[in-house]
Structure formats: C-alpha cells, structure tokens
C-alpha cells in the first residue's frame, strides 16, 4: 500500500492550501505516498494512482486554478479515483449540513466520475487579496471556519476507500 496520491489545490488566499496539506498528511499516515501541490504547478497527473483536488469558492465558482486543473487533466483524471473538496462558507454552515458542490463543479464531477465531494468551511483574514475581501473583513464577516478534525476524518475515509481498492 504505497500508492501515489496527489492532493492538488487552487487557492487565492492560502486556506485551501492548508486543508490540502492536512489531507496529504493523513494519507501519508495511512501508508500512502501523498503530496500536496498547487494545481497550477502540476504538469501531469499520470504519475499518480489517485487524485484529491480542492478549491476555494469565489462568487459561486471554484477557484480558477482548480477549475483549470480539472479541465486540463480531464482525460487522465477520469481514469483515476478522484475526490474533490471545496473551501467556502465564512460561517458555521459547513459543519451543520452537507453543502453541495457549486454547479460548475457538479458538472465536472459527473463528467469525471468523481467518487465524492465535501465542502469545508473557509477562512478569510486580514491581508486577503481584493476589494470585496477587504469589504467583507471591514464588515466583521471574516474568520476561520475550517474544522481540521472534520478534514482529517474525511481524509481517513478517502484513505479507507483507496486501501479497499488496493491503490
Ligand atoms: C471575494 C470573495 C468571494 C467569495 N465568495 C464565496 C462564495 O460564493 N461562496 C462561499 O461559500 N464562500 C465564498 N467566499 C469565501 C471563500 O471561499 C473562503 O474565504 C475560502 O476559504 C477561500 O479559499 P482560499 O483562501 O484558499 O483562497 C468568498 C470570499 C471572497 C474573498
């Protein structure tokens, strides 16, 4: 059980990168060879046996590097076990109910036959890029709503499914 797993992430303000690192760390603990990489830095997914891809949500869309990753590597992703996650709401809702993928991501999931998707809470903190981000922060609506215990639990579920398939 030394399957190679890529955890690719599209991030604008860093919070999805930290989630991806946490997922990769759990996969390594479970015996896989996992690495977390920015989605835009991945030249090919063919060296990997399975892929987890994550993106922040911006104005109802998956972050652009994450979107491009699915488009660019679609053919090879469709042939590998694939899980997706989103990092989004700046409130506690992700811990209270399942938040479905944004519509564009749902279409990609169907096209690529992805095994699963989960939405984790997001984070927005001082220094985030963009005028809208600054406005949200000014209105006191920033914060860190990521639940790392839940993130690790999900990563263990992915590891279990991969192990069952002998990846
Ligand atoms: C301009 C802007 C738009 C956002 N739009 C959404 C949205 O439509 N839905 C959502 O759930 N979260 C939205 N968020 C929250 C982000 O998804 C959250 O901050 C996420 O963790 C960002 O990921 P990143 O730090 O990896 O870029 C928005 C944040 C900003 C700054």
TrEMBL record:
**Boundaries of every Flavodoxin-like domain copy:** 5-159
GO BP annotations, alphabetical order: heme biosynthetic process
**An annotated Gene Ontology molecular function:** FMN binding
Cited Pfam families: Flavodoxin_5
- Family annotation (PANTHER family): PROTOPORPHYRINOGEN IX DEHYDROGENASE [MENAQUINONE] (PTHR38030), PROTOPORPHYRINOGEN IX DEHYDROGENASE [QUINONE] (PTHR38030:SF2)
Please state what the protein is called: Flavodoxin
């Amino acid at each position: 059980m030394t399957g190679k797993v890529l955890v690719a992430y599209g991030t604008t303000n860093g919070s999805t990168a930290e989630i991806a690192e946490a997922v990769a760390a759990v996969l390594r603990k479970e015996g896989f060879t996992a690495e977390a990489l920015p989605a835009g830095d991945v030249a090919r997914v063919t060296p990997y046996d399975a892929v987890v891809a994550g993106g922040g949500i911006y104005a109802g869309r998956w972050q652009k590097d994450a979107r491009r990753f699915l488009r660019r590597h679609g053919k090879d992703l469709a042939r590998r076990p694939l899980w997706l996650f989103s990092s989004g709401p700046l409130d506690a809702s992700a811990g209270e109910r399942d938040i479905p993928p944004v519509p564009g991501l749902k279409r990609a999931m169907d096209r690529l036959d992805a095994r699963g998707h989960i939405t984790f809470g997001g984070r927005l903190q001082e220094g985030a890029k963009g005028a809208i981000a600054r406005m949200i922060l000014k209105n006191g609506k920033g914060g860190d709503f990521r639940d790392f215990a839940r993130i690790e639990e999900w990563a263990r579920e992915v590891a279990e499914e991969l192990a069952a398939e002998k990846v």
